[in-house]
Amino acid sequence: MGTKNVIEKILDVKEKLPRKQKQLCNYLLENYQDIGILTVKDLAVLAGVGTTTVLRLTKELGYENFYDLRKEFYNLQVDAVSKWDNVQVSFQEQNPDHSFTSYKTLNEVWDEGVKNLSDTLNHHLVENFEKAVDLMMESRKINVFGIRPYKAPATYLDLMLSEFNAKVYQLSNDSDSLFDRAIQFQKDEVLILFGFEPYTKRTIQLAEIAAEKNVPIILFTDQLSCPIVPQAAVVLHVAVSQSHYSILPVFALVEALVLEIGKRTSPDSIRTIKELVSTLKSADVVI
């Protein structure tokens, strides 16, 4: 599974720590972008804790000194920037022979897709997937929101689930009335968010409203440094493609959620699908 980054380490230990160290963890998660330039004293003041708390947490997370911890946060920012660099590099044609380039591109995308799927599947994902399905099953309404490229998997999730589950509510298409709906969130609902870099203000604002109303959030993201992570009840973390832009693991996760919920609601889900097919044929929508 590879070495855990600093965000993963914080998430693993946060709930077991004393109150002040937990407070510091929350500050680190919410302000990770700025940690790489702070001193021990700066961080202590901003987080509202003592310098000894900063040093104790540093040791708790497995770092010899604060410099090593700060370097980890700095590297998170470097990784995020280099991802966009890789996207731009992937568009640069390396060979004037287009037939060869086409084969190479197809092969690279397939290989990278298999790697990303393999890297995404780990015991953390399995545990969180189970929690996500439980939340969706228990909720009265499943709200879904994705914006920019991530409107696609949000829409796909809605379309696939809605074929046999009537409690899905798509928020991605209601940009004008998004917050009208959000202020009506109830505790027995769940919000599924697609939060990927670069993060949009609308996604973060929606998460804040849900958190204020104690609505559990299921977060799809490629970075555990995502600012919505501290507010999420469940984080579905997918691997980042290093050679080109890809959201293949996101779609795979969406399909897995739909399949599992279909299984758990069977035989009702099967009966609903059969009725849908019959209705579509009767209406000459499908042959």
Number of discrete domains: 2
CATH level-3 fold name of the largest domain: Rossmann fold
Strand elements, count: 5
Q: Kindly state the mean pLDDT as a whole number?
A: 86
- CATH superfamily of the largest domain, by name, is Glucose-6-phosphate isomerase like protein, domain 1
Spell out the helices and strands N to C. HHHHHHHEHEHEHEEHH
CATH class of the largest domain: Alpha Beta
What this model shows, in words?
With 287 residues, this protein is of the alpha/beta class. It has helices at residues 6-13, 19-30, 40-47, 51-60, 66-90, 98-120, 123-138, 151-162, 178-182, 201-212, 248-264, 268-282, and strands at residues 141-145, 168-170, 189-194, 217-221, 234-237. Strand 1 (141-145), helix 8 and strand 2 form a beta-alpha-beta unit. Helix 2 crosses helix 4 (51-60) and helix 8 runs parallel beside helix 11 (248-264). The longest helix has 25 residues, at 66-90. The chain is globular and about 70 Å long. The mean pLDDT is 86.
